[in-house]
Amino acid sequence: MSDEEDLLIDRDEYLANGVHIGTKAQHKDMEKYIFHVKKNQLAVLNLDVENV
After folding, report:
1. Domain limits, the chain
2. Measured in Å, how far apart are the chain's first and last C-alpha atoms?
3. What HEC string does the chain produce?
């Protein structure tokens, strides 16, 4: 990403409020959007890819 990001919501605001955006529906084509899969099978989305 560029030095000056144009995000819908600032990443620090997400983190300060404990927000994780994810889904339990997963597909092979979604791999580039997934940051991490938790033990409960929740796939946390990568904000660098999804929030632009």
Report:
1. 11-50
2. 10
3. CCCCCCCCCCHHHHHHCCCCCEECCCCHHHHHHEEEECCCCCEEECHHHHCC
Residue at token pair 């940051």: 35
Distance of alpha carbon 46 from alpha carbon 52, whole angstroms: 11
CA nearest 11: which of 47, 52, 37, 46?
A: 47
* Sequential pLDDT tens for the chain (52 residues): 444 567 788 878 888 898 878 899 889 998 888 989 999 999 998 877 755 5
Question: The dihedral of CA 30, 5, 38, 13: what is its sign?
Answer: negative
Q: What is the distance between the alpha carbons of residues 14 and 29, in angstroms, rounded to a whole number?
A: 25
